[in-house]
Design a protein that fits this description.
The structure is a single chain. The protein has 413 residues and is α/β, with parallel strands linked by helices. Helices cover 36% and strands 17% of the residues. The strands form four sheets. Strands 11-12-10-9-16-17-18 form a seven-stranded mixed β-sheet. Strands 5-6-4-1-7-8 form a six-stranded parallel β-sheet, with helices on both faces. The structure holds adenosine-5'-diphosphate and magnesium ion.
């Protein structure tokens, strides 16, 4: 691996600017999720053991250059002091004299949390003067913000232009997992894709459909395929507004799905009878669904969709669950992003839970990716039961779509 890691830097007694991935918002005054802090504890403990002075930099939410009370890093600092069992000194800014004075006075092993860097508008503009201010007084950067590694901001590419950096242990783990999938795929390689945000995933799905043996589709993504294939989906959810028109070329959902399907690929895998693939492709659609008809749930086969109206598809059905599990049993590598249904409602969570229980027992090469996919694990199981988890949606999908992360030029040997 050509990533610069902690092994490549003599950190003993140094003042380290630690770029953390703590983009965690508050819900009713509490951190909505602490995994992004928990996952960085090994890096921080390593640095503390090396007697470093640690200055933590992160952004939180989208304050648009203004101070927003709810987006301060105070709660992050206090949770971190609990986890590290030592005081984390919280500052009111991330640049300026107060910061420089405190940093100068630090003793080995002490930890400081800077204020949210997005309170300065220069952050998202990747302003170079501002980036220089962020590194004043620091000896080196330890970069652990893998989930933001695809962004060009002052606290990502900006600081890296001005000071030597290595990846932290959390970054290294995320990066290794995803590159391993790309470099060491063992076949059959199966992709399971669901969720709602087709526009975010289109490039990744296209790329994955090319490299995978089979793509199993569920969730809102399946709705989009059914719609393009002219099945009746009534009032089922289909994403029609795209947040990033530039990426998708402002196409409509049918064009996007057609584009994914334009690279024809045959399935190289013996799959069970009853399969409904999309013709001449390795993309497999559900054969039945759980639908919501006037607030009641009901299983329905794909061939019956045209016979009724006023319904919403909210999960894959029992036959699809059986079929998808049989296919997954043949596989050596699995990449899973996005729930199979509206798992927030228990009656539409069975599809996602079936894949989850399969993944729990699975010991091959795999990766579970995506904010809501991880929420699903939190809701129905425990994160520690899963070997391969990525907390980074965008960055991981970018790597798998063949794009190089914006920070990589600075973190390579
Ligand atoms: P991830 O964050 O894991 O990448 P997404 O953000 O793309 O996943 O989508 C997650 C959301 O997709 C969930 O809130 C879930 O309710 C929704 N979803 C899944 N299946 C359906 C469906 N059939 N209809 C509407 N929404 C769905
Ligand atoms: Mg999501």
């Amino acid at each position: 691996m050509n990533l610069k890691t902690l092994k490549d830097l003599d950190v003993d007694d140094k003042i380290i600017l630690y770029r953390a991935p703590y983009d965690i918002e508050l819900i009713d005054g509490k951190l909505e999720d602490t995994k992004r802090i928990d996952f960085t504890i090994p890096t921080l403990k390593y640095l503390i053991a090396k007697n470093c002075k640690i200055v933590i930099l992160t952004y939180v939410g989208r304050p648009d250059g203004k101070v927003v009370e709810d987006l301060k890093t105070t709660a992050h600092a206090s949770y971190l002091s609990e986890k590290l069992n030592q005081k984390v000194i919280k500052l009111d800014d991330c640049v300026g004299e107060q910061v420089t004075t405190v940093v100068k006075s630090l003793k080995g092993g002490e930890v400081v949390m800077l204020e949210n860097v997005r309170f300065h508008k220069e952050e998202t503009a990747d302003d170079d003067e501002f980036a220089k201010k962020l590194v004043v007084g620091m000896d080196a950067i330890v970069f652990d913000a893998f989930p933001q590694a695809h962004r060009k901001h002052a606290s990502t590419t900006g600081i890296l232009r001005h000071l030597d950096a290595v990846a932290g242990l959390y970054f290294e783990k995320e990066y290794t997992q995803i590159t391993k999938i790309i470099d060491e795929i063992e076949r059959p390689f199966i992709v399971v894709i669901g969720g709602a945000k087709v526009s975010d995933k289109v490039l990744a799905i296209k790329k994955l459909a090319n490299i995978a043996d089979v793509v199993l589709v569920g969730g809102g993504v399946a709705n989009a395929f059914l719609y393009q294939q002219e099945f009746n989906i009534a009032q089922s959810y289909v994403e029609n507004t795209f947040v990033d028109g530039a990426q998708t070329g402002n196409q409509d959902i049918k064009q996007i799905v057609s584009d994914i399907l334009s690279d024809k690929k045959q399935i190289d895998l013996v799959i069970p009878n009853g399969i409904k693939g999309v013709e001449n492709s390795n993309i497999i659609l559900p054969i039945d669904f759980m639908i919501d008809v006037n607030g009641k749930n009901k299983a329905i086969g794909i061939d019956e969709l045209g016979k009724i109206d006023n319904f919403q598809i909210k999960d894959i059905g029992p036959q699809t669950i059986t079929m998808y599990k049989e296919i997954l049993e043949k596989t050596k590598t699995i990449f899973w992003n996005g729930p199979m249904g509206v798992f927030e409602q228990d009656e539409y969570s069975l599809g996602s839970r079936a894949i989850l229980s399969f993944m729990k027992k699975y010991d091959g090469l795999g990766l579970i990716v995506g904010g809501d996919s991880i929420t699903l694990i939190d809701k129905f199981d425990d994160i520690s039961n899963f070997n391969y988890i990525s907390l980074a949606g965008g960055a991981t999908l970018d790597i798998i779509s063949g794009k190089s992360l914006a920070v990589m030029p600075y973190l390579q040997k």
